[in-house]
């Protein structure tokens, strides 16, 4: 089993021929990911990185059987790219783009409610199932296969957690970078739920940050469902000044429950093993499943 992507996933790259799309598509192909083509309007019929280029996602799906898309489209056009992929029947959409206007993402969120399609991101590092598929911008060499799932708002902390878990002698089932924007597709709770339901995942690392209610929602869900697997939690941004956006657009403390301290208190009350430093993640995982 794996979550969201695996060796059978057929991936297309939207924004395929641009510099970002090209660079990361090359890395994904080198990792062994089944990239079956890409989409750049106006360049259909061409070949890029030895893969076909299509004008539309619909054409790409029809001709390649693609079920997964990764988006490297500039912010002004990225919401339309997500909608196009969803309408074309893509089941998993990974939106890497940072800076998509909130108004655009509101429309996307409304549209996706009625469709059998899962959006990860935007402003995220993507999803990786080690040894099978890397649909994102994470350094693949850090991840080794194993039984620990990772859900994270932070790209760099995803890699850091994976590196620590591997150094402790364990590995990763799937790592999901959900993104740090105010409006995202897959929430922390939904990503945790996917990993809880995955028989290969024996332990979950949940990395959050100040701002919003995502971690609290996930913590309450974990407790309500009986804490069936150990969860290690970390919240970034404890020393951030109140009222200031820190790096991620979603990382702004709006109310009393948005602070790192409050989130950690809720997580502990729900049975999550909270660490105060990201440096302690690997050791805590080893302690729980060793």
Summarize, please.
The protein contains nine helices and 14 strands. By secondary structure, the protein is of the alpha/beta class.
Account of the protein in words:
By secondary structure, this protein is α/β, with parallel strands linked by helices. It has two domains: 11-120, NAD(P)-binding Rossmann-like Domain (Rossmann fold), CATH 3.40.50; 138-289, Rossmann fold, CATH 3.40.50.261. It has nine helices and 14 strands. The strands form two sheets. Strands 3-4-2-1-5-6-7 form a seven-stranded mixed β-sheet, sandwiched between helices. The protein has a seven-stranded mixed β-sheet with strand order 9-8-11-10-12-13-14, with helices on both faces. Helix 6 (188-196) runs parallel beside helix 7 (214-224). The longest helix has 13 residues, at 19-31. The model has no long low-confidence stretch (mean pLDDT 95).
Describe this protein with a few key phrases.
290 residues; alpha/beta; Rossmann fold; 2 domains; 7-stranded mixed beta sheet; 14 strands
């Amino acid at each position: 089993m794996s979550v969201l992507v695996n060796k059978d996933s057929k991936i297309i790259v939207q924004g395929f021929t641009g510099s970002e799309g090209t660079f990361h598509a090359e890395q994904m192909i080198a990792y062994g990911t089944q990239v079956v083509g890409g989409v750049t309007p106006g360049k259909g019929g061409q070949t890029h990185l030895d893969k076909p280029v299509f004008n539309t996602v619909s054409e790409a799906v029809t001709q390649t059987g693609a079920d997964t898309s990764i988006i490297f489209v500039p912010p002004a056009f990225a919401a339309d790219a997500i909608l196009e992929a969803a309408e074309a029947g893509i089941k998993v959409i990974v939106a890497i783009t940072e800076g998509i206007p909130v108004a655009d993402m509101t429309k996307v969120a409304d549209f996706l409610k009625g469709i059998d399609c899962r959006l990860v991101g935007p402003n995220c590092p993507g999803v990786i199932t080690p040894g099978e598929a890397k649909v994102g911008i994470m350094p693949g060499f850090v991840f080794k296969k194993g039984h620990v799932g990772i859900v994270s708002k932070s790209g760099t902390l995803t890699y850091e957690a994976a590196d620590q878990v591997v150094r402790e002698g364990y590995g990763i089932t799937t790592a999901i970078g959900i993104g740090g924007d105010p409006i995202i597709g897959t929430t922390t709770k939904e990503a945790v739920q996917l990993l809880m339901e995955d028989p290969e995942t024996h332990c979950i690392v949940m990395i959050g940050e100040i701002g919003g209610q995502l971690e609290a929602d996930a913590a309450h869900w974990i407790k309500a469902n009986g804490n069936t697997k150990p969860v290690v939690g970390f919240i970034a941004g404890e020393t951030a000044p109140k009222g200031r956006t820190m790096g991620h657009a979603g990382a702004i403390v709006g109310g009393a429950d948005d602070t790192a301290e409050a989130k950690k208190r809720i997580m502990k009350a729900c049975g999550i093993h909270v660490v105060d430093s990201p440096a302690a993640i690997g050791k805590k995982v080893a302690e729980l499943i060793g």
